[in-house]
């Protein structure tokens, strides 16, 4: 048994059911779980293996990122796609992504997960759907390897594309796979890596890319396969742009969500990325069926995709999590920055009462956990995972912001890099630096791989 004590934190933002914020309090951790929290956690009779000084620190639950594309960290800020919308953006980048290698996937996963951990994110999903022909199909394995190295909690989404340009789809044929390849590898990953138990560090998700890149058959067979196993959820892009709505109307004769319902993709084990263009009737269906949405505010703004109806979703108790989306459409894996963007976007769109800082933090913690089907993360309370991050209240960017730690976290600061991040009771970011990799060498390696991919 391993025990740790975070002692005398200035404020602990729990995000528990009562939204308690404890002052001058401590957290006792035992074997990766929170054993006690509050003033009673500091019991001098308890012997611990390690004491961590929480003096002058704000402590928050680890953030949960519900949609990403790690490999896109290698194709950030390419000039040709800085002023185009989604379909044109994809058309340009698909041939570059066709140059992905196993090492590129591993390195980009370290980069993306490293950025996330440094900005307070302790659990992340990733939607990897590019499997170039002639490259080892075991690319998700390399992502899992990267997550283990960094100590991140990970929900890898085994994506797929089976509908190429020759058959009316968007992606080039060089990055599509057959239904048999997709389903065989999906089953292998579930049986080799999926852990549905409490405090699991890895849970597999099945995730065809989008309605315009896979066949109806693979959608139906994928969700059928997932439901044969405990805790295997499904994920895809949906209703991101008006172009997608038009594509679905022309190709399937129905709107995107209606199409999803027709292939069995609705329910509490399903969540969609974006959901920008759902209408009111579709929002009611999401609420009725407990189907979830990953909100990606920065990506939606950068690609001019639109503004998701998040306040309306929250009013309906639709499951909503926050997400940074791909680094080529966001250019960052910064979860704290994503929270600020969400707050400001919905206020300028819907008024000052549209959303509060606490609601945004809830979306990024409890909301993300709910979306991933987990009840062991998302808040700081006894019995839950010791996933958290700490911020020094005396950093210059927080000067004068001690009144309200939640608003201070989201709206203030000269940096979104946190002081410490802990996952499952293990410190993975210390004094703002990743513990398990050399950041400079990693960035250098990523740049070299990126040059080869882009210039090939």
UniProtKB/TrEMBL annotation:
GO terms for molecular function: deaminase activity; hydrolase activity, acting on carbon-nitrogen (but not peptide) bonds, in cyclic amidines; metal ion binding. It comes from the Bacteria. The keyword Flavoprotein does not apply. Residues 58-428 form the Amidohydrolase-related domain. Pfam families: Amidohydro_1. Keywords: Hydrolase, Metal-binding, Zinc. InterPro entries: Amidohydro-rel, Metal-dep_hydrolase_composite, Metal_Hydrolase, MTA/SAH_deaminase. Gene3D superfamilies: Metal-dependent hydrolases, Urease, subunit C, domain 1. This is Cytosine/adenosine deaminase.
């Amino acid at each position: 048994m391993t025990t740790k004590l975070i002692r005398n934190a200035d404020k602990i933002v729990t995000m528990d059911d009562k939204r308690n914020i404890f002052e001058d309090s401590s957290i006792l951790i035992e074997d990766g779980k929170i054993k006690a929290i509050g003033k009673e956690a500091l019991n001098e009779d308890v012997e611990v293996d390690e004491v961590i000084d929480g003096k002058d620190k704000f402590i928050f639950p680890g953030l949960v990122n519900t949609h990403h594309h790690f490999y896109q960290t290698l194709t950030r800020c390419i000039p040709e796609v800085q002023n185009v919308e989604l379909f044109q953006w994809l058309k340009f980048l698909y041939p570059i992504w066709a140059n992905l290698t196993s090492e590129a996937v591993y390195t980009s996963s370290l980069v993306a997960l490293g950025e996330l951990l440094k900005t307070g994110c302790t659990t992340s999903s990733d939607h990897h759907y590019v499997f170039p022909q002639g490259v080892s199909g075991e690319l998700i394995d390399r992502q899992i390897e990267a997550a283990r190295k960094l100590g991140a909690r990970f929900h890898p989404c085994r994506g797929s594309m089976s509908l190429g340009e020759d058959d009316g789809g968007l992606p080039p044929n060089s990055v599509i796979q057959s239904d048999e390849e997709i389903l065989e590898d999906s089953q292998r990953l579930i049986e080799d890596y999926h852990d549905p138990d409490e405090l699991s560090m890895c849970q597999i998700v099945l995730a065809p890319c989008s309605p315009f890149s896979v066949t109806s058959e693979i959608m139906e067979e994928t969700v059928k396969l997932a439901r044969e196993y405990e805790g295997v959820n499904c994920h895809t892009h949906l209703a991101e742009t008006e172009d997608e709505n038009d594509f679905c109307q022309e190709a399937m004769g129905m709107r995107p969500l209606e199409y999803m319902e027709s292939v069995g993709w609705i329910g509490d084990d399903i969540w969609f990325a974006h959901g920008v263009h759902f209408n009111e009737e579709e929002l009611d269906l999401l609420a009725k069926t407990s189907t979830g949405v990953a909100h990606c505010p920065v990506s939606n703004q950068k690609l001019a995709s639109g503004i998701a109806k998040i306040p309306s979703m929250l009013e309906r108790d639709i499951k909503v999590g926050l997400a940074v989306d791909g680094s080529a459409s966001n250019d960052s894996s910064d979860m704290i920055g994503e929270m600020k963007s969400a707050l400001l976007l919905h206020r300028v769109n819907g008024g000052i009462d549209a959303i509060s800082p606490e609601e945004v933090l809830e979306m990024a913690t409890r909301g993300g956990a709910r979306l991933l089907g987990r009840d062991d993360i998302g808040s700081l309370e006894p019995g839950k995972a010791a996933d958290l991050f700490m911020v020094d209240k005396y950093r210059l960017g927080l000067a004068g912001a001690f009144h309200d730690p939640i608003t201070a976290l989201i709206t203030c600061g000269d940096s979104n890099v946190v002081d410490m991040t802990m996952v499952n009771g293990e410190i993975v970011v210390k004094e703002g630096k990743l513990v398990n990799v050399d950041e400079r060498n990693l960035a250098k390696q990523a740049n070299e791989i990126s040059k080869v991919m882009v210039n090939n």
